């Protein structure tokens, strides 16, 4: 290939690796030779030479939640510019599966891992990664003080939502939750309780609903089995909000008039439902970008102290809330 382009092997190698050190005319000549000969760059061999795979492992707990698709898009937007690709896996909230996935990613030679740790993750995982010298960034859930973290101010988002509902006259506010307990879960629950207590409201109305969207809709009746029926519902995430919206519609309850509903995460579906969903935006794509930047910085300088990048939330007010009203089942 170098002979066909009439350049040295070193120059041809620079073109293949997209080096800026090669002039445009030479680059075009080498690329034309590549196409003529059908040359395919052996990335595996290059990895052995450079001791880098230019791959990033990303492990999340749920591939069906649109939040994680937006998070991944943010990660890819940064690693792509760095000439790297993502190897994606799902830990399914299972610690054993997570351990297996991490081990396999190490076997595939990933340069580092961005991990949303499964509930129940212990310190042994972080100790093992440190022994392997495998850079790690925690995303969304902060388990270890000894690893980088990219996340969002969950408690601040709860304060924003409760403050907004309070301004509409709501005092009986339920918090609908689901899923296992992990740091992000606890931060939201604690944030809700603190925000409610700051207004002198009862913070005990925490309602656990199923994990699946259809089952959430069927569990809407749980909201109206409380000691005092809520006039507003704040949701752990938008998946719950969408499920409850369907269940409330089936019960003939008008969202925004009979009952106010607030989501959390503000994924793209929030604009698609009617009435449009008021939601606390965590900007998952931006969190993903931060996680990727932390990992790239760690790869460039492994001696950096652990860092945290925690984004503020933004409440996006739409149509799903109105003045406080008494709801009848």
Automatic annotation (TrEMBL):
InterPro entries: HTH_LacI (IPR000843), LacI/GalR-like_sensor (IPR046335), Lambda_DNA-bd_dom_sf (IPR010982), Peripla_BP_I (IPR028082). It holds the Pfam family Peripla_BP_3. Keywords: DNA-binding, Transcription, Transcription regulation. Residues 1-50 form the HTH lacI-type domain. One of its GO terms (molecular function) is DNA binding. The keyword Hydrolase does not apply. This is LacI family DNA-binding transcriptional regulator. It comes from Phyllobacterium phragmitis. The lineage of its organism: Bacteria, Pseudomonadati, Pseudomonadota, Alphaproteobacteria, Hyphomicrobiales.
């Amino acid at each position: 290939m170098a002979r066909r382009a009439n350049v040295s092997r070193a120059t041809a190698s620079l073109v293949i690796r997209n080096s800026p050190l090669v002039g445009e005319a030479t680059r075009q000549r080498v690329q034309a030779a590549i196409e003529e000969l059908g040359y395919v760059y052996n990335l595996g061999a290059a990895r052995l030479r450079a001791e880098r795979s230019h791959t990033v492992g990303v492990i999340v707990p749920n591939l069906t939640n649109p939040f994680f698709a937006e998070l991944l898009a943010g990660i890819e937007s940064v690693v792509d510019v760095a000439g790297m690709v993502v190897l994606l896996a799902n830990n399914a909230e299972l610690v054993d599966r997570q351990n297996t996935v991490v081990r396999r990613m190490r076997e595939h030679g990933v340069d580092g891992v961005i991990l949303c740790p499964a509930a129940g993750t212990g310190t042994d995982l972080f100790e093992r990664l440190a022994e392997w010298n495998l850079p790690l960034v925690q995303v969304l859930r902060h388990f270890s003080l000894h690893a980088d973290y990219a996340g969002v101010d969950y408690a601040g988002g709860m304060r924003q939502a409760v403050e907004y509902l309070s301004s509409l006259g709501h005092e009986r506010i339920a918090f609908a939750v689901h899923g296992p307990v992990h740091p992000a879960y606890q931060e939201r629950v604690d944030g809700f309780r603190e925000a409610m207590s700051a207004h002198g409201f009862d913070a005990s109305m925490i309602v656990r609903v199923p994990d699946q969207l259809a089952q959430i809709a069927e569990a809407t009746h749980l909201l109206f089995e409380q000691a005092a029926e809520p006039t507003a519902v704040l949701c752990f995430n938008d998946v719950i909000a969408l499920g409850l919206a369907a269940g409330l519609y089936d019960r003939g309850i008008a969202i925004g008039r009979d009952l106010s509903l607030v989501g959390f995460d503000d994924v793209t579906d929030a604009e698609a439902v009617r009435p449009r969903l008021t939601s606390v935006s965590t900007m998952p794509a931006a969190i993903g970008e931060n996680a990727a930047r932390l990992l790239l910085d760690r790869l460039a300088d492994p001696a950096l102290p652990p860092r945290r990048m925690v984004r503020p939330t933004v409440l996006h007010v739409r149509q799903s809330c109105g003045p406080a009203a008494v709801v009848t089942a």
